[in-house]
Write a structure and sequence with these properties.
3-stranded mixed β-sheet; mainly alpha; 2 domains; 61% helix
Length: 350
């Protein structure tokens, strides 16, 4: 049995010393619309062009994020382009054939391979076969932390040992000490191996947030740990004040971002879930104003096959001052069945 508790000191080391250079639906009340998983203004043209079979815009978008070191954007865009490639493989194969040495295609290829393997009952075995693609993506740009985020997800899915994972983690934070995607991947790994030990996950998330700049998405990591605790069925109780502190930190971060913008929408939708679970109704209504029309599949797909419908029902209930029991019921419904790997069957759930 792997001694995963030995991993905690490595994850709790400060990282500051390692710095380096859609669908639509109408809401019955008020006529407002909600959009599910809307792309931002940079990604949208690339997806429109991809729908026409063109890959130049996607290539240029990833090249621009790489040149500017916009790693959070690059991570989000790589995931969305891989999701498109999964449904339109001929589009991606044409892009890959035209630009075989492009770091962008290497990155999307690695993400796509992990996405394809994730829902399978043979996940661990299939993931081991895609390791060369992740290695190729990492070698394509030594400064890019996103391949290392993919490698961290890959290690969790293939149930790699903690020493190997620690090596990946340290390589990731050398490149970008406050990259949110890598921190989420690490938190999920800890949650998988320390199933039920949510306090250790909070320790990791809290220290990472304390070490990160005030405007970093890592400030939302404790809220992610709170989400893991509130959607789990085991482990000792986490004190209410720790859950509130995680929510407070995420509320402060959300207030720093523009209102009704698509790119922070997932963080805000997750925060809305947390605020409702904590019964913080006024804070939840205030967060709805910041979310605007931008619903996201996560976290609502964890509780319903109709994530947009779940978001709309919750929004209508909050705006209509529905009874707390009714609102709580919308975020406490039983999740869909797991797939035997302590994860949902959806490919995006990693």
């Amino acid at each position: 049995m792997v001694d995963t508790m030995a991993l905690l000191p490595a994850f709790l080391r400060p990282t500051r010393t390692t710095r380096r250079a859609s669908h639509r639906a109408a809401l019955p009340q008020g006529g407002f619309e909600a959009v599910l998983d809307a792309p931002d203004d940079r990604l949208s043209p690339a997806l429109v062009a991809a729908a026409r079979g063109e890959y130049g815009a996607a290539s240029a978008l990833l090249a621009a994020t790489r040149a500017a070191g916009q790693w959070e954007d690059r991570d989000r865009y790589a995931k969305r382009l891989a999701a498109f490639a999964r449904s339109r493989p001929e589009w991606f194969e044409a892009w890959r054939a035209a630009a075989p040495g492009d770091p962008g295609t290497a990155l999307v290829a690695a993400q796509l391979a992990v996405d394809r393997a994730w829902p399978s009952p043979a996940r661990a075995e299939l993931l081991r076969e895609v390791s060369p693609l992740i290695t190729a993506a990492a070698r394509a740009d030594d400064l890019d932390p996103v391949p290392w985020r993919i490698a961290l997800d890959h290690a969790r899915g293939s149930r790699a040992g903690h020493r190997y994972f620690e090596e990946l983690w340290e390589a990731a934070v050398r490149r970008a000490p406050h990259h949110y995607g890598c921190h989420v991947a690490a938190l999920r790994y800890l949650g998988t191996f320390w199933h039920g030990s949510h306090r250790e996950c909070f320790d990791f998330a809290d220290l990472a947030a304390q070490d990160a700049p005030a405007g970093s998405l890592v400030q939302a990591l404790p809220a992610r740990a709170a989400f893991g605790y509130l959607t789990d069925d085991c482990g000792p109780e986490v004190p209410r004040e720790r859950l509130d502190a995680a929510a407070d930190r995420a509320v402060a971060l959300s207030a720093r971002f523009p209102a009704a913008a698509p790119w922070p929408a997932e963080m805000r939708n997750k925060l809305l879930y947390l605020l409702v679970r904590l019964g913080r109704w006024e804070d939840a209504r205030a967060e709805l104003d910041l979310i605007g029309p931008y619903a996201t599949s996560f976290p609502w797909e964890r509780f319903s096959d109709d994530p947009l419908g779940r978001f709309l029902r919750l929004r209508e209930g909050l705006l209509g001052a529905a009874p707390p029991a009714a609102l709580s019921g919308l975020v406490k419904a039983a999740p869909r069945p797991r797939n035997g790997h302590r994860g949902r069957a959806a490919a995006a759930d990693h």
